Amino acid sequence: MDLGIDIGTSEVKVVLIDDAQHIIGQARSAVPISRPQALWSEQDPADWWHATVDALAQLRSAHPTEYTATRGIGLSGHMHGATLLNANDEVLRPAILWNDGRSHAQCAELEARAPDSRRITGNIAMPGFTAPKLMWVEQHEPDVFRRTTRVLLPKDYVRLLLTGEAVSDMSDSAGTLWLDVAKRAWSDTMLEATHLTRAHMPRLVEGSDASGHLLPAIADQLGFQTGVVVAGGAGDNAASAAGIGVAAPGTAFLSLGTSGVYFVANAAYSPNPARAVHAFCHAFPGTWHQMTVMLTAASALRWLRTLTHADSEAQLVAEAEALPTGAPVPLFLPYLSGERTPHNNPHASGVFFGLTHDHTRGHLARAVLEGVAFAFLDGQQALLDGGAQIDTITLVGGGSRSAPWAQVLADTLGRQLDRRSGAEVGAALGAARLGRLARTREGVAAVCTAPPITDSFTPDAQRGESLAARHEQFQRLYTHLRDEMGAPKDKPP
Question: Under CATH, domain 2-238 is a member of which superfamily?
């Protein structure tokens, strides 16, 4: 038996699998978020631990025999969170999360201090990353910074409590801006730029390697046997990729969730920071990944439902589908929360363009479906410009349940999209698989297999040609409105 623990932003989720990788049981426990000021997003690290203990207790109660047979544990978690500890490993302040935006000014300062940062890290400095957060702490909470002796990511703080080991994996650490992503090692240049040293950093391991074993007292508390191996684990997107078989170069997934992620595995380090593509280490040795992020994806349809008082998103999609072929549809820029890839513009905003008296709610819904697809196409172009090879794409996320939207995406991207059984389990399943790899040392290809395909969406060439013309207009519209929205604060040097 192997167990995955996913430290999510809103909940901790645990999954138990057997040796055939069948899911034996799942449990979850909520984690509160604090937003004490505008742009701030924080959590108490103690809440991650309490939620982990609670979720494990639920799983133990439901499946006691299988639970106690656990031999490997993998960890996943939301990336970039800054957890600051003192010399006694006591938490000094609430953790600053990935969606905290207070450190915009520090991003520009970091790149000025380390002009080679984009080459080293493969990424533009953004407030979401960990390093700028530490610069903010140094400038605004100098006493906390002075007492900080260790900085850990969220899942790695939970690992410290489980094993007593301060360890991180390559994929999660690549999101700190302290890692030399090509070399898979801490960068002295980036650490010095934030007035830190390697002594502040955890030991690094690959995600599929062992990071330690459960402490005897913790194993007893949680109801495990002694000697349970804890894997390096992964950041949430890399763990999700492990769970749905996106491990070999050329495999990809597209997540149509609240936000949108386009993730592709690479055989080599392939940065494209000029287009706001993230280049990170994957959870497996000798593998990297590129990732585009759009800040508003399926949530755009949810916003339209609320705005127009529709009964459901499904009703909106049905109304869009009922439109006659060739009906004039407005264009929609889906930048309701700004945008990351490819614009890196927090000031970008949503736009409906081309509205007339003849347009109905169904026209707006169709515009939203297309606008999100066009933004994913922008991301795909950025990935390809960065050298990505994309052979297969698995469609995941809540929005993926809509077959009409999946078809719009396939037509727009010009690529087949596959839906797979069990893909909704996500990062916790990938973490469990990493736990198995750490204890058995099997090959990645033997364990991180893709679940069976349930259905596929093949692009229609004629519809794709029409959408391509609309996508060009979509791009021109943003270009013309960009200065009106507010130019990005971060331009390539």
Answer: ATPase, nucleotide binding domain (3.30.420.40)
Three state DSSP letters for the chain = CEEEEEECCCEEEEEEECCCCCEEEEEEEECCCECCCCCCCEECHHHHHHHHHHHHHHHHHHCHHHHHCCCEEEEEECCCCEEEECCCCCECCCEECCCCCCCHHHHHHHHHHCCCHHHHHCCCCCCCCHHHHHHHHHHHCHHHHHHCCEEECHHHHHHHHHHCCCEEEHHHHCCCCCEECCCCEECHHHHHHCCCCHHHCCEEECCCCEEEECCHHHHHHHCCCCCCEEECCEEHHHHHHHHCCCCCCCEEEEEECCCEEEEEEECCCCCCHHHCCEEEECCCCCCEEEEEEECCCHHHHHHHHHHHCCCCHHHHHHHHHCCCCCCCCCEEECCECEECCCCCECCCCCEEECCCCCCCHHHHHHHHHHHHHHHHHHHHHHHHHCCCCCCEEEEECHHHHCHHHHHHHHHHHCCCEEEECCHHHCHHHHHHHHHHHHHHCCCHHHHCCCCCEEEEECCCHHHHHHHHHHHHHHHHHHHHHHHHHCCCCCCCC
Per the CATH hierarchy, to which homologous superfamily does domain 246-421+460-493 belong? ATPase, nucleotide binding domain (3.30.420.40)
CA dihedral (283, 288, 294, 298) positive or negative? negative
Length of the chain in terms of residues written: 493
What phi, psi does 332 have (nearest 5°)?
A: -130, 125
Owner of token pair 């490997």: 72
pLDDT tens per residue, range 1-40: 999 999 998 899 999 999 999 999 999 999 999 999 988 9
Tell me where in the chain the CATH 3.30.420.40 domain(s) lie: 2-238, 246-421+460-493
Structure-token pair, residue 158: 């939970």
Q: Which of 25, 192, 203, 59 is nearest to 120 (CA)?
A: 192
What burial letters (b/e) apply to 263-279, b meaning 16+ CB within 10 Å? bbbbeebbbbbbbbbbb
Q: What does the pLDDT look like over 413-452, one tens digit per residue?
A: 999 999 998 777 789 999 999 999 999 999 999 999 999 9
Residue 176, token pair as written in the block: 């700190």
Q: Which residues are catalytic?
A: 236
- Write the pLDDT tens digit of every residue in 300-332: 999 999 999 999 999 999 999 999 988 899 999
